[in-house]
Amino acid sequence: MKLTLLGTGCPSVDHKRFGPSNLITTNKAKILVDCGSGITQRLHQLKVSSANIDALLFTHLHSDHAVDFYQLIISSWHSYRIKPWKIYGPKGTKKFVSKIMDAWSDERKLRIAYEARASDKAFQIDVTEFKTLGDIKVKDLKIKYFEVDHKPVKYAYGFAFTNTNRKLTISGDTKPCENLMKYAQKSDVLLHEVFIEGEILKTNKMRTKKTLHNVKSYHTTSSQVGKVAFITQSKKLVLTHFVPTQFNKNRLKKVVKSDFGKDPIIGEDLMTITI
Ligand SMILES: [Zn+2]
Ligand SMILES: [Zn+2]
């Protein structure tokens, strides 16, 4: 199984760290987790066609994780996708997908009629909403989904993927929570989000003290993520979803290592990890 980080950023714009999204590939399956800003450009850089993606999973419906959804669908149509989309996400995903598709429906009808492409299967979208806990199978990839704690977001999930006895866990956006520590146990790779303390010091009119406090409190901080990874007994910890997107990498590594016991991998866009 391979994990490729398509976007390691957050809502802040950074041309080196696109919006959150990841690609997981096995011998048979290609899965996307989230579709943050720039996902289609990153897939293009990897020479992976969106026509061949088997499923898209949303961790939650914060805009940084979902904003390029329509771009993904449209580009898959341009890439001659001849199968419907299979989408999994939290409660509210059906409504989200139908609203987005609806917003562009007039433009799309005109385009489909005028461009007369060979297939419009890319616009057939089958959405399955998660329960609190469950399993999905996509070809040779097993996926367990579980709730994480990203309150006030009501429905947020992490995923544990298994293939050929290897395990990859993706935290999604979460503060430290029991479910993650339970379902990430003994991961070969734990891909975890992080809020880096001490890197956003300045407040201004748009970013008050309360903003910083609130953003920090629904994420996992740099002084917590190593402890979480240690508790999960994961072999490797890969960090992503950096808040902020620019920071002192050595300082972050040092802080996390002091809790995890091993150097974490600082994720970068287009980094591929074989699991
Ligand atoms: Zn996020
Ligand atoms: Zn979020």
Question: How do the helices and strands line up, and which of them pair or pack?
Answer:
Elements lengths: L1 E6 L13 E5 L4 E4 L5 H8 L8 E3 L5 H4 L2 H10 L6 E5 L3 H11 L1 H11 L9 E5 L3 E6 L2 E7 L9 E7 L2 E5 L7 H6 L5 E7 L13 H9 L4 H11 L3 E8 L5 H12 L4 E2 L5 E3 L1
Parallel strand pairs: 3-4, 4-5, 5-6, 10-11, 11-12, 12-13
Antiparallel strand pairs: 1-2, 1-14, 2-3, 7-8, 8-9, 9-10
The structure holds zinc ion (2 copies).
Low-confidence stretches: none
Structural class: alpha/beta
Tell me the number of helical segments per DSSP (H or I, 4 or more residues long).
Answer: 9
Q: Quickly name the level 1 CATH class.
A: Alpha Beta
What is the radius of gyration? 18 Å
CATH architecture: 4-Layer Sandwich
Instruction: Kindly report how far apart the N and C termini lie.
Output: 5 Å
Any idea how many domains?
Answer: 1
By CATH, the topology is Metallo-beta-lactamase, Chain A
In percent terms, what proportion of residues is strand? 25-35%
The average pLDDT score comes to: 96
Report the count of strand segments.
14
* Shape call: globular
Q: Name the helicity range.
A: 25-40%
Order of helices and strands: EEEHEHHEHHEEEEEHEHHEHEE
Specify the CATH homologous superfamily. Ribonuclease Z/Hydroxyacylglutathione hydrolase-like
